[in-house]
Every structure is written in C-alpha cells, then in structure tokens.
Structure prediction request, 586 residues.
Amino acid sequence: MLAADWDPVWLTLRLATVTTVLLLLVSTPIAWWLARSRHWLRQPVAAVVALPLVLPPTVLGFYLLLVMGPDGWVGQLTRELGLGLLPFTFEGLVVASVIYSLPFAVQPLQNAFEAVGEGFLEAAATLRAAPWERFLLVAVPLARNGFLTAAVLGFAHTVGEFGVVLMIGGNIPGETKVLSVAIYDHVESLEYAQAHGLAGAMVAFSFLVLVSLYALNGRARTGALR
Amino acid sequence: MTGPDTVHARFRHAYPGFELDVDLTLPGTGITALFGHSGCGKTTLLRCMAGLQRAPGEMTVLGEPWQTAGFHKPVHQRALAYVFQETHLFPHLSVRRNLEFGYRRTPAGQRRIVFDDAVHWLGLEALLSRMPAGLSGGERQRVAIARALLTSPRLLLMDEPLSALDRASKQEILPYLERLKDTLAIPVVYVSHATAEVARLADHLVMMDRGRVVAQGPLQETLARTDPPFRLDDDAGVILEGRLRHLDEHWHLALFDFGQGQLWLRHEGPMRPGDRLRVQVLARDVSLALQEHRDQSIQNLLPARIERVETDVSPGTSLVRLRVGATPFLSRLTTRSVHQLGLRPGQGVWMQVKSVALVD
Prediction:
C-alpha cells in the first residue's frame, strides 16, 4: 500500500469515530422517546428516522447539498454564524454521516430501551430515584448491549458509506477523500493492486465487525448479562 | 375520619372492564389485606396509592397529603416502599448494591432502619455479594423486601409478594413477614387472593369486588360475617388468635387459649407453651347441640350464643354465627337441622368443634 493510501484510512477512522460519538448523543434521547412515548407524533418521527434505510444515498446527499449550500436555510444559518458552508468539508461529512446512520443507532437503542420494561423503572421510582437517576442508573446499564450494537453499527455503516460522501464531500484529499472514494479512484485509474489492498482490508474489517456483533448478541440472549 | 395516624385513600376512575371506586380509611399500624378475586382491582388500587398509576382522588398517609384534587406528589418523593410480585431486583447490581439503592437515596435524617438490621431480619448476610440471577425465588423476594424497607417507609405496599413462589419458598418467607409485623410500627397494605396468607398475616381485611370495597374491618369480624359479599364456600370460617397454654405429650395434643375459651389441637411441629398462634376454625367443622353431650367423640365442646342464622349458598344449608364471649364463630348446618333444633338468635347452645387447624 502506498503512503498516500493511509490518508483515506485515517480520515475514514476519524470520520467514523466523531460520527459515532455524535450519533449516540443524538440517538439516545430520540430512542428513549420512541420507546416510551404514546404521543401521536411517534409513528411519523419513527418513519423520518428510518428514511435513510430506504432512500438511495444519492437522494439524501442531493437534498443535504441543497439545504447546506449557499441557498439552503442551513447554509445561510452556518454562514451567518461565521462557520462558512458545510458541503465539501470534513464537518459537512460528519453532519451527513450522522443523519445517514441515524436508523442504525436509533433502532437497536429503541429495542433495548423497550426491553428494559416498566417494572425496573417503577421499582427505582419507589426506591426514591428521580427520573434522571432511573434513566442513567437503571435504563442505560440494562440497555448496555443496545449501546454497543448502536455504536458498532453506526461506526461500520459510516466507514462503508459512499454515495452521500460523493454527493456532498467530493474527493478532496485529507479533507473528504474517504476509503470508499479512494477505492473508486483507484479502480477508475485501473490501479487494481491498490484497490485490492484497500478493498481487502474493508472486507476483513466488516467481517470482524459482524462476527463481534453476533457474538455480543448471542451472549445477551443466553443471559450472560451480569 | 382521616387523622394523623390513619391512611386515607379515595379514588374513582373508569378502567376498561371495571370502575375503581373506593373510599378507604385504614389503621396506621398492622397489616391490612386487600383481598379479592383476580381482576377485582386490588392491584390497581395499590398502584394508585403508590402513585405508579394515576386516578383522580385523594391519598393521605399519617397526616401527610400525597395526592389531593390539584396535587400529585411524584412517586420518588413519597416515603413509601413497594414490594412487587416479580421483585424487579436490578439484574446488573449485586444484592448489596440493590439494598443500597434506596437506602442511599433516603436522607440520613429520615433513616429509621439500620442497614445491618434489615440484612439480619431477612437473613441476607450470606447473599450480599451475589448477583440476583443466582438467587432462588424465595431469596430474591427476601432481598426485595429488605431493599424496600431500607427506604424507611411510612407506608409499605406489597403486591402479592408470595404468589409467584412455590410452597416451600412461601413457607420460607412467611416467618420473616410475621416477625416484621412485630418489629415495624408502620401500616402495611398487602394485596392477596390467597385465603391462607390473609388468615396468617392480616389484622385488618378489605374485601374487593369489581373495583369496589364490599366489606372491611378487623380480620376476625369481617371473616365471621354471615353475608359475605362473595361466598368463601368451603373456606368460610373464622380465625382465632391466642397463645398455647399447655402441651399434652401423652395424647399429642396442644391446648390453645383464645382469651374467651380454650380448644385442643393436634400437637405437630415445634410448639412451646406461650407461643402466639393463629388457628382457623371452618364453618363446616362446627356442629351445634342443645345439650352438653360428653358421650361423643368430639373433644372441643364450648358453650356459645347464637347471633344470626342465615341461608347459605344453597337453600339447603344455613350459616349460623355464634359468640363465645366476644369471639365470633361460624357454623354451617343443613337448614333442616336449624329447623328441627329450632335455632334462633339469642339462644344458648353447645358448639362442637371437629377440627382446629394451625394456620401456616
């Protein structure tokens, strides 16, 4: 592998890490609300969160490009705040990745919160725990596997994204040229050896992620929660 | 009559299937059993008392308002303890951390129960470092009871704490509950549909049916009603509380004294003179005679006075309430016997008690 090929690898890992952290922060309250609310908005919100699952990445990327561009409302807002425009920047990629990977984090968290059950939270309330203590000391530890699954899936999904990146990030080395785009470049230039190096590494990485995920879920099912 | 030493609960709310409509004033000490068939609303009432479920009404505990017309104190700010049927021990915390969960959240000035005392009362010394998943059903419920008590509650609510347990585990826990009753001076509301548990533990009985209270009062008096709102059928009978006077080793009998009279019961298990006991006398085990017959096999013969005579479940049988001193008894007879003996209120008779069962 050429030294230049390490750049996209580091960039991808950095993007995936930042995205995962933000993803968990954003997804947790959404998942908690979806798991416990009986509000009529619950179904529509769940559908919006799930949209990235069914939309082609290009559609998502296209609209993000418009909204974050100089004529979009987000673009105007970021410009007024002195942040400049988001498209074709690392920050822009982070925002797009969080939205794109949202369902992969929200759904396992929502399932985990639903599985916690009302009983433990009621017990905590009768033991004088305030609502935030019930959430932090009971719901979160009991939903631990949901958090692990959400983090792993969110990270892996961000590493694997291509369409959205191409639409709003382009191909700027060191800024937005992530792994999948680098592989695409190599293939376009008929540099199959380099493409093999990166693509093979991706296959191995994805396999490891899935194996650890299945092991994790298997352990949760056999009741190894301690 | 709401006062600083009573628990007052008034709720009214329509639920799918039944309407909860109760107005109860309970004594400030001792165990009150909320008793009724499943689906009668007793668990719903308990949850409303705790604030886990909302229903319009009022709730006052020992002078402190928990719920009024425009006010609902959040559950976590109420000095209550709740023991759930399914225990709900936190699976990610050890027994010790489970016990500490509520204890640490109770302000130090309000703690009236010492940590080591609760551990000792419920025999948890050897379990402290274990995880809940490794405990038996009975052990888990004991931990749950200790965990609840460690919040030093002003009101203890128990929702069928024994019904998910097998017979052996029930027998394991009941002595702990009996001892707690003597140790704690707080009101306990105990939901159950098991006659045996109620007979053994309760001081005060509230019978519920379809969301309403149909009878309430001290346990003995309420059980001795001849017009029970729902028939206990073969379980109809009275509970007597008293002390063991004397053991007859030769005939394997024990003499039980309930204050206004004495009864022989079979000597079984560990018994010592002076022990406080509860015994049950079923209506079907009590027959009546106009004269004192010594020439028959029944050992327990007591003079009694008839108070009421009423037709039982079927027109062929009658239920007679009698008093020995102030202690009520029930007797189930055929209506023909009642007629032939000419039994009527106020009459003095001899009561023959065929069987006296230790409640356990």
